[in-house]
Design brief:
Elements: H1 7-38, H2 40-64, H3 66-69, H4 72-90, H5 97-105, H6 110-129, E1 133-146, E2 150-162, E3 170-183, E4 186-195
Antiparallel strand pairs: 1-2, 2-3, 3-4
Main location: membrane
Subcellular location: Membrane
Organism: Mycobacterium noviomagense
Length: about 200
């Protein structure tokens, strides 16, 4: 009988050939696992760096969006808020004084409302009691600084003041520097300074 004819001899020969191959594969697998275990710190560090970089990039483009918060549309919105606010702050009439004050206060930040209240009590209310009417028109306005949460706008205005004694209005021109802050998506006046 030859070894090819005997199935038991074939099994022994095959199993003796397979065992070294399996051992070699096992040694290679354990070697790879040992190398990975030895390098776990750099692997974890690289994974954390990639994850934090991805998070920062996502936050920048999804949440912060500085390019969209300071584009032409944002500048136009700030200029419009400053222009409308300047008209509301400086225009008043004895007939509609409380409505004029309420309209102006709705355009002011909390910090500036205290100043405006003192201004209206000391200057505007006595002038309105004497019959003074002030009308303001914005000639030109432009943003000089624009940030996602704040803006500075230069506003050029024409002001007409009339009274019961002098019905012919007195015209004057001036410029104001309006500092705005963004609160809950709306531009509110935080500072209002005359420019000389």
């Amino acid at each position: 009988m030859t070894p090819q004819d005997d199935p038991q001899i074939d099994d022994v020969a095959v199993s003796s050939e397979v065992k070294p191959v399996r051992r070699r594969r096992m040694r290679q697998s354990w070697g790879l696992i040992r190398r990975c275990m030895a390098m776990w710190r750099p692997i974890v560090l690289i994974t954390l760096l990639l994850a934090s970089t991805g998070w920062a990039v996502g936050l920048f483009f999804v949440q912060y969006r500085p390019d969209q918060q300071t584009d032409k549309a944002a500048a136009d919105e700030a200029v419009k808020a400053a222009s409308d606010g300047a008209v509301a702050l400086l225009s008043y009439s004895p007939d509609s004084l409380s409505r004029d004050f309420a309209n102006a206060k709705s355009r002011l930040s909390d910090d500036f409302q205290d100043y405006y209240k003192r201004f209206t009590e000391q200057i505007v209310a006595p002038a309105a009691q004497r019959g003074l009417t002030t009308t303001v028109r914005v000639v030109k306005a432009a943003a000089s600084e624009l940030h996602p949460k704040s803006a500075v706008v230069l506003v050029f205005i024409d002001q007409k003041t009339a009274s019961k004694e002098k019905p012919e209005p007195v015209k004057s021109g001036s410029s104001v520097r309006v500092t705005l802050t963004k609160v809950k998506g709306s531009w509110l006046i935080a500072k209002f300074d005359a420019v000389s």
